[in-house]
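Hi,

I'm pasting everything inline rather than attaching a file, because the server keeps stripping attachments. The sequence lines come first, and each chain or strand is labelled.
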Amino acid sequence: MPDILPRRRILLASATALPMLLATAGCRSSDMFAGPDPLAGRPPLAPDVVTLDAVIAAEENLISLYRTALDGSSPATAGRPALVALLTQHEQHLARLRAMLVQPPATAQASPRSSPRPSGPAGAATPGPVTIARLRAAEHASATRLVQRLATVEPALAQLFASIAASDATHVTALGG
Amino acid sequence: MAAITAAAALRAALAAEDAAIFGYGVAGAHLTGSRQDAAEQDWTTHNEARDALTAMIARLGAPPVAAQAFYQLPFRVHDATSAMALAAYLEDGVTRAYLGLVAVSDPRLRTFGALAMQGSAGRAVYWRGRTQAFPGLEASA
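And the predicted assembly:
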């Protein structure tokens, strides 16, 4: 019994001490939360996310090239079944890359892409016919660029990039390279 | 998942190269003409890779993986078709092993592993006759 009274006194004393401490420190309790809101505005994207976003855009460009080559308006019509097979693999690449990028539904709709679509040396934005040579160059550029990105991403993403790069490299050979 | 060390990843790649060297010896005996020439070239490439990996492991101060006297093959090799299937299977194993190297923290080893994957994936396409979407990540077909 006698032990409780001192504890209650400590609790009561501390309850009255806090405003006194703040006062002696020259601030009020409301000032503790008066600084800038750390969550105000859109936080910057992690480097891996920025890189993945760029790789997804590059893959989309490659797919666009293949679709243009297959739509009959380009000279790259020879070996159509082979091109379809390569296009299918690029679509699989894109699906797997997108699966690595998880965005909350609200931000996915409201926020613009963090990086502009890169056109690349053989990007879909570049006009002109899509020849086999152009596809081959685009595949080679893709494989090269993916290997360059390996150093800066986390291991699982690096392995996916390396696998896709290996696939792209085999496409160069399949296209006669 | 525990981070893989460079030495462990290099040793795994070396083990895959040793298995490929053994397997190509079996496959080559059932091939003729240009296919046999290709098998011999690939066998030489794997020997060179084995030597390079052994040197890299030694520079890390780690003991190399000794090649086995015999490797259990995944299926019976009795003709050119099964020999080519074996060659593709071996290259898939090499690709998977180098994929492990891509996961280490050293960026130079990541690049080395990725480029080696391109080589083995390309050889697998030659033997299999078709490309794959995810070399090293797919099960050997």
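The radius of gyration of chain A is 29 Å.

If the labels don't parse on your end, tell me and I'll reformat.
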